[in-house]
């Protein structure tokens, strides 16, 4: 559920993610998102007005203030920092041509099968043990939220790939298709076209550092390219010491930075 109001020339949209909402995996339950009128807006003035508005609303602990800003536009960054925002997530895109897939010795990379579901689910849940250290805290209902979403993936387009060694799944990539068309939500963030979305990629801790993730993503990129994608995109957390190094090495470049204050009452 969402609600909009005017904040001067800007728009302030409130999102409520109740129990059972998959957005709770990475988001606060209540989010106030600011949409400035344009990239030349006086961001400091908008943030001061926003701060005054939040003081009247008195949001709870499970809340956040959020704004998307072009990653290569520096003129608003000082204002974000001064008002307590941190760069919590980056939307990055990749348009580079596919490369050669070279799997480590003894590793097979393939599309997931129905029998892989529980192994992939365990890996997916383990992602939140780590990301809970560097972004949104892991919620008690994580498995309850992840299981049906992953089940739909396995029963639908099956854009799930796994890396297997000695009969065990040691890495997985869960992906999907997104159409950026005029007047669609995706067109607010991505150039028009059919994009491959990389939702979650995870490698078992004892299998990291051997080129497994790179080989897995090389196959994913090749398959998206063959199927006609204009490129691929994903979100990663800048504070994550693994993701912030791995994804740029795979050719991803920042397009949008998500600035956030949590809880929303901490905006200043």
Describe this structure in words.
The protein has 6 helices and 11 strands. The two termini are 26 Å apart. An 11-stranded mixed β-sheet has the order 1-2-3-4-11-5-10-9-8-7-6, sandwiched between helices. Strand 9 (193-203), helix 5 (212-226) and strand 10 (231-236) form a beta-alpha-beta unit. It has helices at 43-57, 77-82, 117-134, 142-155, 212-226, 243-249, and strands at residues 2-7, 10-16, 30-35, 63-70, 86-94, 107-111, 160-165, 168-180, 193-203, 231-236, 253-261. By secondary structure, it is α+β, with helices and mostly antiparallel strands.
What coarse outline follows from CA principal-axis ratios? globular
Radius of gyration equals 19 Å
Strand content: 25-35%
**Averaged pLDDT, please?**
94
> From N to C, what is the helix and strand string?
EEEHEHEEHHEEEHEHE
Number of strands: 11
Helix percent reads 25-40%
Number of separate helices: 6
- Main sheet properties: 11 strands, mixed
Q: What topology, given as strand order, has the largest sheet?
A: 1-2-3-4-11-5-10-9-8-7-6
The secondary-structure class comes to alpha+beta
Contiguous runs where pLDDT drops below 50 for at least 5 residues:
none
Distance between the termini: 26 Å
How would you summarize the topology of this molecule?
Layout lengths: L1 E6 L2 E7 L13 E6 L7 H15 L5 E8 L6 H6 L3 E9 L12 E5 L5 H18 L7 H14 L4 E6 L2 E13 L12 E11 L8 H15 L4 E6 L6 H7 L3 E9 L7
Parallel strand pairs: 3-4, 9-10
Antiparallel strand pairs: 1-2, 2-3, 4-11, 5-10, 5-11, 6-7, 7-8, 8-9
Using brief descriptors, characterize the structure shown.
11-stranded mixed sheet, 268 residues, alpha+beta, globular, 32% strand
